[in-house]
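General statements about sequence and structure are easier to judge against a single worked case. When preparing material for the folding task, we compiled for one chain both its residues and its backbone structure tokens. The amino acid sequence and the backbone structure tokens for this protein are reproduced below:
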Amino acid sequence: MKAGFFSIAVLAIFRLSHAQPHRQHQHYHQARQETDTFVDIVTDVVEIYASSINGAIVPYSTATIIEGEQTTAAPSGDQGSPSTSSTAASTTATLAPPPPASASVPAQPPASFPPPAPSNGPSEAPAPSSAPPSSPAASPSSAPSASQSSYPIASSGSDFTNAISYSPYNSDGSCKTSQQVSQDLSQLTDGYDLLRLYGTDCNQVSNVLAATQGKNVQIFAGVFDVGQVQSEVSTLISAVNGDWSRINTVSIGNEAVNDGTATVGQVTGAIGQARSQLSTAGYHGPVVTVDTMEAMSKNIELCAASDYCAINCHPFFDGGVAADGAGPWVLDWAQNISSMAGGKTTKVTETGWPTQGGTNGKAVPSEENQQAAISSLKGSFSNNMILFSSYNNYWQPDSATTFGTEHFWGINGNAPSSN
């Protein structure tokens, strides 16, 4: 009997190992479907193959049941794969699903920085996926958790309850004047308590601080170019002019690892350099790097080097999530990242929904769906979520890989100062 089951198990594994759809994102779902069949058949030895790494099927969890007792073995795979463990039971293994896969690193709206900023689009359009992980995976063995990190960790900073991103560029990519910035921000009437910026060019930090003076608005400041961290931090220090009371967080890089513009080591080194430089200038608040949820999950040391985990997380690009399911999907990702980082705080630094562009599976761009997505997101997050973005960004490059949506993420439509 056991020999018969073992033969079926080998056959099931062989079938699974040869299921290689063109896109890795689709391959994950094929693998998961095979997993369900395999669990139904095999009761003596269970190996769940649930992730694909560089085209190779890798066991996500292994459980062996012997005479009513269950033991679990550590998952194998490359060092970037999340691991998990099963809860011991007398007859049945409890198997947690892995984080949702996607086409390499999932597509995200491009960094809010004028051309020629690197595109964040994927090499191919992502395929539809199912729900995100219901149980967060444990920290990868190769990456330090927050509790194990040797990095100096400051406070995660003050929470924000109503935040949105803003980019001070005209449709041709030129800098907006201080008057244009004031005009744009005067129309943001929804009581935002934090504005996220992405860089230090165009005098944007000084202009935004001046335009929001007396309005109880904090700034999530950004250093965009990891390779120019000293210069950009110096510009930020000059713009603040000794008053750090309105700077909530300073981010070093935006999706740099996701875009391939910097290595993990370069980003973590830049964080340390910036933290030292900022501390000398009197700033002792959070310093983080921002990356996509997928890049962060595969490189959790980015989170370990930051004072909290900061992720850009866009359900539209998953393809398997409708607008009204945006909130729970993003929340599951945030919880998963925190679990991988040893319980460290995770804040969502970009999320939203486009109003125009092509359909991506269940994700359909429209003004109605944008409002449904925002309602869902606010239902899942009472704080620490930044909506993307204040206005449509026509200076952004667009492409079919991002479904022609790049210009149309503005929650308030076109900027008042648009030219």
User: Anything to note?
Assistant: Confidence is low (pLDDT under 50) at residues 1-154.
